[in-house]
Amino acid sequence: MDVHTLFRALCLVLVAGTHLRGIKAEKDPACKKFEFLNSDIDECIPCSICLQYPKTPSCETCPHIEPRDSWRVAAITSFSVLAAVVVFGALLIGVLVHQCRSRRTLRGKA
Question: Which CA distances in Å does 49 have to 8, 58, 63, 95?
Answer without folding.
Answer: 49, 11, 12, 56
